[in-house]
Amino acid sequence: MKPLPTALSTEPKSLSRRRISCIRVALDVPLAKLFDYALPEDFEVRVGDRVVVPFGARQRIGVVVATEAASELPASRMKSITAVRNDAPRLPSDWLELMRFLSGYYQRPLGETMIAALPPRLRSVRPLPRKSLSAAPLATSPRFVPTHTLTPDQTHAFQRIADVYGRFEAFLLHGVTGSGKTEVYLNLIARVLERGGQALVLVPEISLTPQLESRFRQAFPDARIAVMHSALEDVARTSGWLEAARGEAGIVLGTRLGVLAPLPKLALIVVDEEHDPSFKQQEGLRYSARDAAVYRAKLAGCPVVLGSATPSLESWHNWRSGRYERLELPERASPGARLPAVRTVDLGRESAEQGLAPALWSALAARLQRNEQSLIFINRRGYAPVLACEGCGWTAGCTRCSARMVLHAADRRLRCHHCGAESPIPRACPTCGNVDLQPLGRGTQRIEEALQARFPAARIVRIDRDSARRRGELARTLDRIRRGEGDILVGTQLLAKGHDFPGLTLVGVLNADTALVSTDYRAPERLFAVLAQVAGRAGRRERPGEVLVQTRYPGHPLFGALARHDFAGFADSQLAERRAAGFPPYLFEAALRAEALKLDTTLRFLREAAAMAAVPDEVRVFDPVPNTLTRRAGLERAQLLVQSSSRPALQAFLAELTGKLFVQARRDVRWHLDVDPIEFD
Most exposed among 12, 142, 310, 634, judged by the fewest C-beta atoms under 10 Å? Predict the structure, then answer.
């Protein structure tokens, strides 16, 4: 961890000009340094205060991180702070320590880390409206309304975690889909609220938040629940942050940014679907909310629960290594519910018709006759991935990215799913003039069209990011499905996890093979997780469920483990392969990525960067290479991979490297460092 230039002050009293000559402030600027300011005579400041300071020609908001008896700057050159903002609670010491850890581990400036962790309205130099400061009365003893009686396995898990109240311990709650992990969470939270504490619950997707929020409000009708995610308007997001920071919200429910909120009475952290890649931020401070949650639980001295049916291999390794305690929920919680039967459909023997094999068409027809719901899962939205000319071989490509445009038939547009560029569908091939352009491949829209043609009386519901663009549309659609208002669902990963559809008994999986031939060593882990999660939507009540996976590799060990519901065997075999190949979690990685108008500029920058810092024996720096998707949004991208078997050695090297990169700013190249990367596109 990269240390601050000075330690944080622990002085509990207000500080005035008589006691100190300056204060040290963290600002959101692309420099790995702190800034000294003079303190006017009539100002009182403490560590954790937000202050307004002059910086260049502008006023900026900053956070006081230390107090100094003297500064290296002469008094004549030192500017004074402009104002102290007391419109929100002072940022507490444990929050400051969390920010220092994130800044040091992920090698980003402390000021950038702190300011980015605040809601947008608290980053402004303008104070909050006075009405924002009024706190609503708290419920003295929030009621808990349980909806189910815990099973013996759930009771054991609940009691084991409850027994460590008040001290840190990390638990891996490994429960099959439908095993009732949420019921364990609710009972743990009830115990926390009884003792006056706060519980932080993190979920991977914004789409899961409304469903889970509704369930929490039913279970705790009197409790204050603060919801935090990036889709909220600024006022609502700031309000939730204030309720959490003042200790008014007993439950804080949010996506990855929820882990950054101050929580003065934190007593429990839950990370649901902890394996999900969306817990890793992919811009700005590239932090892992799951890992930050574990560190935060250490600071708070409270238990952290990582829940999943398909834990990440990092968490599984931590259990195998004795760092985490595993608690298992091996059976579904609903009476009579069993895990679905999973079998493969060999596309080498059964030719697909309009994307679906005969066995899947027959299974869909049988469910329609029995008034049961089915789900067709395809990891691709849009109508088709490529628009092509059969005459000359032209395909519609993005002019700003080294990727093809995706055909969206509903609004007759071509869209790039990497940079967002759009264009109308051409009337003819721009190369040879052929007017007979054909879609290749099948997305959700094309599968929906085929299903409607085969089953005209069926109610087909398509759910992907295109159909759920409008605010609240996804929640309303999911609610209708749960009420039985839909026969066949066609969906992407939005439907793969966290949803409970009582009438759904069949899941058909299309396009499952691409991950099997991927060069990404994480691809099998992710494929198993998504298939297990989407399979878990079937048969969650007394009616049995069935899962049909279309593949050209029916003998692949991954499908065998999936059919046996043997995550443990699959995870152990993957870890053995990772150990033999020298991949995480058996070593540690970071990727220095850069982009510029020309690829030569990008590669030259990375080669120069690699030579800036001394490379220890324990660290290996690879040659820079272009990204798989080399051009995106008009910029040419490349990356330099750094590996080490020693985390401290890697961190020391990265600290020296980024320290020099921040000083030597360049206008022609944009760069960022990704510590513990999970994507290599």
Answer: 12
